[in-house]
Every structure is written in structure tokens, then in C-alpha cells.
Specification:
single chain; 327 residues; alpha/beta; Malonyl-Coenzyme A Acyl Carrier Protein, domain 2; Alpha-Beta Plaits; four-stranded antiparallel sheet; Malonyl_CoA-ACP_transAc; Malonyl CoA-acyl carrier protein transacylase
Amino acid sequence: MSSQDQQIVFVFPGQGSQYVGMGSDLLRDFPVAQRRYEQANDIVGYDLAKLCLEGPEEDLKLTRHTQPALLTHSLVCLDIFRELTEGQVQPALTAGHSLGEYCALVAAGALDFETALRLVQKRGECMGTYGDGEMLAFPLHLDNIQSLAEKHYCAIAASNLPDQTVVGGRGEDLDRLTEDALAHFPRKKPTRLKTEGAFHTFYMITAALHFRPVLDAAEMHAPTLRVLSNYSGTHHDPDPATIKTRLFYQLFHPVNWIGNLETAFRDGVTTMVEFGGGLGSGANPEDKRPNLESMVKKALRGSDYSVHYHAAINSQTLRQTAAALQP
């Protein structure tokens, strides 16, 4: 099936999908990647490419480094895909999880690469410097965990799926919440996430206030495509000033990813292409799997709706997906 017969959404992952060696194959195989990484190095003021390729992992996973690294990798993948398809594969919609929302806005023409990179560099610095707390992913519906979380001074950080809710709070509060939740739901053990803070909760309010002046000053245009908002769960208003307010609120409100997926399904999307990052224990880019695919498949489980999913996260999958969708 060619792209002309499909409703396509481009999606971009968030923090947690970075890895040491990310982009090594792209830099080897595509001159456009080399140019983009050189541009990124100049913008951030350090050798971002070297950090992505060589680590150390402890530095790459710091929020102030992770966000520029992942945004650059995701948008390099998008650059390469556009080159391979000669710009003929166009989405009807773009979306991203947390940090990935900035990539989605670039893909839709609302931000240029330099502006987006400067924004996420500052965003990451603010979140790492002024944030507090930790995060847990519970295999529970929002309605089952929210009141328990609030009882222990914790807050909802993301609704990823009907049965996957992320909670943020201080470590000792999360420990008490875990004990309480397991008493109610003994088979629903949470997973501790490796983050520098309780992202998308009230623990990020100070970070958001420091980030706001930079966000306010950024040049932004009305997107040429529909873009999904993590804050609202539905489409962004095309007004740039309104988009900025939603990005501000996104820092300390839950990511409504299941809302984004449900909106995309209602829009009639037939195909998803995920750009950037990768998960898995393999050391090489070709060993990685896409970050968001499993959530999409779980969201569709039990429904009559189906979506063709394509990865565009390394040289191999970029070539495969470009060939599959080429008109």
C-alpha cells in the first residue's frame, strides 16, 4: 500500500529511549546526518554527537543532555526519511510523547530545528536543576491509582494506556504509595523509572516558571499540519501563543498519551511512523526496537481498528520504511 492511500501520523518518543551509540549508523551512512549533528554541536555548545556515540551513559541520561540528544536523533531520522522519499510521504498528523512533542512541532513546521533544540536544552536544564522527586509506572487504570497517589502526596504524571499510569512524587512517598497500592492490587507491581525528577507533576512548577521566559521569546509559527497536545489529549490550537501555553502546562500536568492515541484513531489514521530513539539491550542501533509501538498495539487490543506501524529509528528501518511507503 503506497502512502497516497493512507492517513499517516509521524510520532516521536520521549525521554527513556536514548542509548549510547545512538546515531552512529546514521552518521556513517548519511551526509545529511553529519551536517545536522555539526549544526547541533554549534547550537548546544558542546560535542553532542560524541556524547551520543560514546557516552558515558551517566552523562547521556542527565536530563539536560538527554533532551537535546534525543530531539536531534529523532529529527535526523526525519531528515533522512524525507531525503529517501524525496519529500513525497506526507503525514496528516504529528504527535510526540513529552519531549517528543517538540519534534512533532518541528515536523509540522511550527518550530525550526535550531529553535526547538535551544528550547529543549533549556527545558532539560530547568527540569534537572529545579525539579524534584521520582517516578513509578503502575499497571493500573487512572481511576484506580489517582486517589491512592494523592493520599501520599503523589501526582499523576502520565496516562499512557487505560492500564498504564505513571505517578510522580518524592521517594519516600512513592514507597508508601507502593505499599498501599499492593495491598489493594497485589498483582500490580509498579516499575521505578530512571528519571531526575517527577516530571509532569507539581514538582516541575518551579522548572516551568524558569522555562517560561525562554518559551515566550521563541519564534513559533502556526503549524501546517495538525499536531496533538500532550496537555489536552487532542489537537493543538494553531495559534502559536496558545501552543506555548500548552507546552508550559505540559511540564507540570500529566501527559495524556492515551488521549492522543484515541484522537489519532478518531481522525482515521491508518499508518504510524516512529522516528528516533530505541529500546532494547542490544549494543547496536539495528538491535533496537521503537519506543512507542508497544503502547500503540496495547491501545488497539480488543478493538476492530488497526494501524500499520513502521519504525524509522536507524539506517536499516529508515530504508525499509521509506521503501514501503514510497508512492
